[in-house]
UniProtKB/TrEMBL annotation:
Organism: Sedimenticola thiotaurini
Domain spans labelled Pseudouridine synthase II N-terminal: 33-181
Key words, A-Z: Isomerase, tRNA processing
Pfam families tied to this protein: TruB-C_2 (PF09157), TruB_C_2 (PF16198), TruB_N (PF01509)
Catalytic residues as annotated in Swiss-Prot or TrEMBL: 48
NCBIfam families: TruB
Protein name: tRNA pseudouridine synthase B
Source organism superkingdom: Bacteria
Length: 303
């Protein structure tokens, strides 16, 4: 019995989607996949329906490197309302406490923000996708159940105050994966003594990608109507664009052969540590490598 033929086009590349507000990451992914008539596609880490902005969509071989984007640092723009705490730490929850914000000025905010830069501990919110005994926390929260959560260590690389117009302020955040921006905003509010919750959240960066060149669902639809599937394909970035912040290694014909067999090779003048992009002698991207302790280059994810 022969293998079943997969349906859809063999699309390759990465689309920088501007995820709409109010839509789940998975529903956005499925809509894009249908427009492209793609055989295989995946996204690189969920954005809450409350949030909009950058959601890289990986097609074909790009799904093999989506984990590297999932692990990459993220950037956010966030609007925070001071003086109100909600059940979900965002505008979708019910207000459970109100406190005055008089006396909260720029100096106080800057002093508090300093405490949240660098390595910090966060307790995952109940309204999150973290699992407890096989159940998602947000499902338990909707049933009125609260469970104890272990703190997690995250890194806040940048935390800048963009605007302060009480009772609201705007922040720019660059952080490691797994950071809960809602929790960060809530904790900042507590440190200011007035409480806070998120009223606006936009992801502006994932790994090497910024928010320039984002494509909306409306642009995808109009491109398809005007230029067909070839027009949509022209919106895709190369697979290796997700890794352009890593060093590249050009392999000799012999080295490329052994790497494709899964064997480490010695490459003159290679970096001494970390991950690298691998190219064959014809300058084709063939996958991800890692520098071993003995200096050899080992294949980690081949296209």
């Amino acid at each position: 019995m022969g293998r079943r033929r997969q349906k859809g086009r063999n699309v390759q590349g990465i689309l920088l989607l501007d995820k709409p507000l109010g839509e789940t990451s998975n529903s956005a992914l499925q809509a894009v996949k249908r427009l492209y008539q793609a055989r295989k596609a995946g996204h690189t880490g969920s954005l809450d329906p409350l949030a909009d902005g950058l959601l890289p969509i990986c097609f074909g071989a790009a799904t093999k490197i989506s984990a590297f984007l999932l692990d990459a640092d993220k950037r956010y723009w966030v609007r925070v309302r001071l003086g109100e705490t909600t059940t979900t730490a965002d505008a979708e929850g019910e207000v459970i406490e109100r406190r005055p914000v008089e006396g909260v000025g720029q100096e106080e905010v800057e002093t508090v923000l300093q405490r949240f830069r660098g390595e910090i501990q966060q307790i995952p919110p109940m309204y999150s996708a973290v699992k407890h005994k096989g159940e998602r926390l947000y499902k338990l929260a909707r049933e009125g159940v609260e469970v104890e959560r272990e703190p997690r260590t995250v890194q806040i690389h940048e935390l800048e105050l963009l605007k302060l117009e009480p009772p609201e302020l705007e922040l720019s955040v660059r952080c490691t994966k797994g950071t809960y921006v809602r929790t960060l905003a809530e904790d900042i509010g507590e440190a200011l003594g007035c409480g806070a919750h998120v009223v606006g959240l936009r992801r502006t960066g994932v790994g090497p990608y910024g928010d320039d060149g984002l494509v909306t669902m409306e642009q995808l639809q109009s491109t398809l109507e005007a230029d067909g599937l070839p027009g949509l394909d022209r919106l895709l970035l190369p697979v290796e664009s997700a890794l352009m912040h890593w060093p590249e290694i050009r392999l000799s014909p012999d080295s490329a052969f052994y790497v494709r067999q899964g064997q480490p090779v010695l490459v003159p003048n290679a970096p001494t540590e970390g991950r690298v992009r691998l190219y064959d002698p014809d300058q084709r991207f063939i996958g991800v490598g890692e520098i071993l302790d003995d200096g050899r280059v080992a294949p980690r994810r081949l296209m």
